[in-house]
From TrEMBL:
It comes from Peteryoungia desertarenae. It comes from the Bacteria. The chain crosses the membrane at residues 16-38, 44-64, 85-115, 135-156, 176-193, 205-226, 262-284, 305-323, 329-348. This is DUF475 domain-containing protein. The lineage of its organism: Bacteria, Pseudomonadati, Pseudomonadota, Alphaproteobacteria, Hyphomicrobiales. PANTHER family: MEMBRANE BOUND PREDICTED REDOX MODULATOR (PTHR30238), SLL1022 PROTEIN (PTHR30238:SF4). Keywords: Membrane, Transmembrane, Transmembrane helix.
């Protein structure tokens, strides 16, 4: 079956980041203006400017694997739904997850209205940050479980025939014939980590993790039902609205860590929104570039590195319910895995090219 067309034509790599550069300039200017309004000093303005830049880098480092996974899903979607995700989807990602999601947490946790949550963020940022930090455990359990299912589902696939770490991935692919094996592994980890917590925290962890698992399964089922006009369920996953919902929930899960981690740098919701919003635009640009240039096909192990990074991120989110793990470790760990997978792909391509040259001679 022919693959759906991708979004555009050949362009230079920098062209893909044009809007990201524009948003960066606007965002950093807004950050500087906000810093001046908050402090009334050049030092305060420079501090907020710097925090916005650091948050943008943090978001990019934490979400590079998100861009690869998005590209993996998008390359099989129809051009119409590709475009919808990259326009409406990015608006939901930037405004929904970076602004409304933190507000929603405070609305639920504090039992106040949305307007009161905005006023709390503006007038009492310390209290706002405290509520967000108190909600970290259920968020980490929910997001970690969802991402773990995403990663395990990729490796536990009997049709997967390209393996990076051969001895491990080949066994996982063969084990995919055991129905529900990835769910069993996740449930086992949920029980393990819940035993390391005590009292109410353990109960909260279990319930939140189960909700994350149910959300993944619900998105899979709803995606198939919404796109049931396709010939098979496997093809349905490549369809329109169902795949769109899947990508949005996936982006939300990736965003949990960045949003919570941002409060370590600043308690101001609006500074966080600017910094993470800038980073989200680069993730969008990287996604488009990966799809249009066919980078995933060219570098055969890049996808593997991204999904390993997802699995590690999910375990880190679980571990963060027990101890604090600096976000820089999370970001650098994922980036390192992707870098190694890229190097392995380049090495494979060179060896293959050398073999072809020898055969030609």
């Amino acid at each position: 079956m022919s693959q759906p067309a991708t979004l555009g034509t050949d362009k230079s790599s920098l062209t893909y980041f044009r809007w990201a550069f524009i948003v960066t300039a606007i965002g950093l200017i807004l950050g500087a203006v906000l810093g001046w309004q908050i402090s009334g000093t050049l030092d305060g303005m420079a501090t907020v400017f710097f925090i916005c830049a650091v948050l943008a880098v943090l978001e990019i480092s934490l979400s590079f694997d998100n861009a690869i996974v998005n590209a993996n899903k998008l390359k099989d979607m129809t051009p119409v739904w590709q475009q919808r995700f990259l326009t409406w989807g990015i608006l939901i990602a930037v405004f929904g997850m970076r602004i409304f999601f933190p507000l929603l947490i405070v609305v639920i946790a504090a039992g106040i209205g949305p307007i009161d949550a905005v006023l709390l963020a503006a007038r009492e940022p310390a209290e706002y940050a405290r509520i967000m930090n108190d909600a970290h455990l259920p968020i980490a359990a929910f997001g970690g479980t969802f991402l773990m299912m995403v990663g395990l589902t990729y490796f536990f696939d009997h049709e997967k025939d390209i393996h990076w770490i051969e001895w491990l991935e080949s066994h996982m692919a063969r084990s995919a014939s055991i129905k529900g094996i990835e769910i069993a592994l996740v449930l086992l980890l949920i029980l393990l980590f819940s035993n390391l917590l005590e009292g109410e925290e353990a109960t909260t962890f279990v319930y939140s993790a189960i909700y994350g698992l149910l959300t993944f399964l619900a998105v899979e089922v709803i995606g198939g039902l919404l796109d049931a006009s396709q010939k098979t369920l496997a093809e349905a996953a490549k369809g329109g609205l169902g795949a769109f919902i899947y990508l949005e929930v996936l982006d939300a899960s990736f965003s949990f860590d960045g949003v919570i981690g941002a409060f370590a740098l600043t308690q101001n919701l609006f500074i966080i929104a600017i910094g993470l919003g800038i980073g989200a635009m680069y993730v969008r640009s990287m996604t488009i570039m990966l799809v249009e240039k066919g980078t995933l096909a060219e570098y055969r192990y890049l996808e593997h590195g991204a999904f390993y990074a997802i699995l590690i991120l999910s375990v880190i989110m679980y571990c963060q319910t027990l101890v604090h793990i600096p976000e820089v470790i999370t970001g650098l760990g994922g980036a390192a895995l992707i870098g190694v997978s890229l190097w392995s792909s380049i090495r494979f391509n060179r060896l293959e090219l050398a073999q072809e040259s020898r055969h030609a001679d």
